[in-house]
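quick one, 199 residues, struct below
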Amino acid sequence: MVNSLPHVQLPSAPSALAEFICRFQLQMPPAVKKAQGVRQAAVLIPIICHEQPTLLLTRRSDKLRKHAGQVAFPGGAADTSDTSLIFTALREANEEVGIPPEQVQVIGTLNTIDSSTGYQVTPVVGLVSPQVPLFPCEDEVADVFELPLYEAFNLSRYHALDIHRAGLQHRVYLSWYQQQFVWGMTAAIIRQMAEQVSI
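---
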């Protein structure tokens, strides 16, 4: 079970947040094909601890060389000095949106997933208090928004699209929330977590 930390006020009565934490920690991730990427990366999935919890997502700057304008979780490639992939996810979240690592209560990780750029990405799930201020890095982040968990975990929101690339077939998922278009690896990660907690 999660140890309560001063910076994350977990509700004592049953709530959507408490139910999510319980289901996430009690369910094993579904078995999937092992990721093949040779380079390591990690993203933080920040769960904002409102009474009705939300996912914190970013829209990447249009000026970036890769994945410009796409909706993403904060994250990136592991540095040689990183002590773990959890450290990588927390470091990147601090750099991109200003969340201090000590203000994140990590509750687990999801199965690794391959990115289109050859990385093996580890999603790290962490709880963040709504009182933690955000300081998005203007060079990397164009927008920050929150997606309610009850919306994110509605599996009917995700539409599969099979594409062919380099002689192989790949399935990508597409979804929308208000004016935000969520697709690719970000949608796949959210859908993976939704499947895990709905078992």
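The chain has one domain: 16-198.
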